[in-house]
Amino acid sequence: MSQEDLTRQNAVVKPADTEFKLYLDAVSSASQRTRSTIYVLVAIGVLTLTAYRNTSKPDWVDSRLAHLQLASACVERGELFTLDCSVAIDYSRSFLFSGRSHEFLLADGKEFKDELKQQIQAFIKIRTDALSLRLPFFGVVIDMNDLGLITGVFLSFVLYVFQAGLHREVDNLNRSKKRAAEATTFQKRKERLELLLMTQVLASRKGITIGVHVLLIAVLLVHGAVVRDDWLTSGTAIALQGPFWGTWETRIDVGFFLLVISLTVLCSLRQRALDRTIDDLIVRLHGVEKLLESEAEGEAEQLIATETGDGRRS
Question: Residue 184: what are its φ and ψ, rounded to 5°?
């Protein structure tokens, strides 16, 4: 083939490759947006779980404080050898001091009583500080009683964006698969399908992407636990804010939780649609690979037959 013919062929093929690259960029961008939303979901889930664990019973701070307060009460009343008091005092001494044998560190000693009171005050301060949560990136401090409401608002927005991103990614993949099928050769079609598959990270294999569904369920369960506590402690909200605001805030919490449930189910369905789209992409890729193998075998057989015929003529 002459140089002129090669130049003409490149001029024909290159625009088609450039056009498919636009489809490929669209799929890659949609996949990146989906992954970014998943990262945000992970962050919200971890922050909510941490805040909930630090303020719900039985949390570590309250458990330590309860043992120290029981030990202080036992020492004040002189009850050092009952079962509950003995456990609380032993824990308190091991927590406050590295050594236990010195006479100044005995349960009825002044040093032990003073250290115990100071540590109780420190834990009360930690417990009070834990009732406020500073949101990262925003610099806003919220009360822990608003955790269910704030989490519901954030999750509703993020889950809506997530399902919209999944829907767009599926649509982009379907359009790109049709464009890849328009390739003039099986080799070109294989390359395009491989490039589409390479844009996927979480859903790059056949079957259900279990990790995404597990994440959705985990975030929903964490939010559900927070809302459940808000529902059970609605009496506290009514006592602090009055019947009107206390009742309505609890109802809004439940309303956002129902919205989060609906969006979680929708996201799960969208993810399943993406999984099926990737499955179809893999099936098409395997089919093209088999066609290429058959084509190569046919060319080999034709070459052998040609060489055999040439040998007979000679």
Answer: -75, -20
Token reading at 88: 């609380």
* d(C-alpha 60, C-alpha 67), whole Å: 11
pLDDT in tens, 247-266: 888 889 999 999 999 999 99
The 10 Å CB-count burial string (b at 16+, else e) for 205-236 is eeeebeebbebbeebbebbebbbebbeeebee
CA distances (Å), origin 260, targets 88, 158, 222: 43, 10, 12
What confidence tier does 106 reach under pLDDT thresholds 50, 70, 90?
low
**Residue in the structure block whose two tokens are 């009742």:** 247
Within its chain, how far is the Cα of 302 from the centroid? 55
* DSSP string for residues in 87-151: HHHHHHHHHH-S---SGGGSTTSHHHHHHHHHHHHHHHHHHHHTTEEEPTTT--EEEGGGHHHHH
Task: Grade residue 301 by pLDDT with cuts at 50, 70 and 90.
Answer: low
> HSE-up of 123 (CA within 13 Å, CB side)?
22
* CA-based nearest residue to 219, from 49, 13, 34, 10: 49
